[in-house]
Amino acid sequence: MSKSNRSALLGAAFLMATSAVGPGFLTQTTVFTQALGASFGFVILCSIVLDIGVQLNVWRIIAVSEKRAQDIANLVLPGLGVFISFLIVLGGLAFNIGNVGGAGLGFNVLFGFSPESGALLAALIAIAVFLVKEAGKVMDRFAQVLGLLLLLLIVYVAVTSSPPVKEAVTKTFFPDRIDVIAIITLVGGTVGGYITFAGGHRLLDAGIKGKAALPQVTQSAMSGITIASVIRVFLFLAALGVVSKGLVLEQSNPPASVFQLAAGTVGYKLFGVVMVSAAVTSVIGSAYTSVSFLKSFHKSIATHENWVIIGFIAISTSIFVFIGKPVHLLILAGALNGLILPLTLGTMLVAAYRKSIVGQYQHPLWLAIFGGLVMLIMAWLSGYTLLTLSFGE
């Protein structure tokens, strides 16, 4: 395997993982840990299992078809790719507004900048990546470095907070209560919407495709799931360590409270680094993947891809600076992504058995069954969530 291929495979894994671990993820994990305690471990376990069922199916089908998700969807049903693209770009924009807002909060913690000024600085950093000639390689390396930094800092805070690990393990498998909305929100925020396709589309753009590349594609997908899952587990343990001591989190910024209560002033500054790292990598992942869904619709978009991505980042930042309030938007975007997931996964599973799309490729039966179960579970959870949100409990 060439060095560039290795870098692209690792870059795709980190792009997916860091796209999943954004400001919304930090906030959702902290808030749900505060509400559910050690039983939130069950939600994380469910989300990891569902993630595997989604990502392994989607990445493989994109690779063997050598087509982007929207093109596959249009072949399954004319016009479906356009509809899915609209939903994913809309969700990606909503998430990106929250992402630049999260970066603004991170810079506020680190340097005292206003959230708006911090958001503008984060946008400039993300835009700089796409001003480089070989933006794909720079994006891969950027995601790897900041993703690793993010992981190490969260592990440090988790150890410092001294969580009740035994209780967390027990309640992960035998929870006191099961929160369906927490499951769909976490899954939607970590594998729904554009995040489902971030790694698969990156590998396609890097030329890693076809049946021969499937072992590499599977390895990259599993690496991405593992990285995101490890970060998820340690953030949960960090929050649980604080909550289990009866300490009260600041409601205006729950994740910052976790870091501060666990590690004092140093922890608070580390939160700033974590938030900036999570937010900027998510801005890049969201913009890149969202625009990849537009490339099929006009040659000029593909030709000027980097400039369209820069425009996407600029629009997201402008909306935050002039409208603000990303917290509710992040929750809404997470729910929206969770609702999109059954449709996108179902479409990919149908495509796996269309020879006009995948040729002579034989999709593993166990993987199709696994994906089908995930699709049905997410459809049921989505329906339950819609009813609950519409009519109350």
UniProtKB/TrEMBL annotation:
GO molecular function annotations of the record: cadmium ion transmembrane transporter activity; manganese ion transmembrane transporter activity
TM region(s), chain numbering: 35-54, 75-97, 109-130, 142-160, 180-204, 225-248, 268-294, 306-323, 329-353, 365-387
Keywords from the UniProt entry: Membrane, Transmembrane, Transmembrane helix
Cell location: Membrane
Stated name of the protein: Divalent metal cation transporter
GO BP term (any one): iron ion transmembrane transport
One Pfam family here: Nramp
InterPro entries listed in its UniProt record: NRAMP_fam
Domain of life of the native organism: Bacteria
GO cellular component term, pick one: plasma membrane
Membrane topology summary: Multi-pass membrane protein
Signal sequence, renumbered to the chain: none
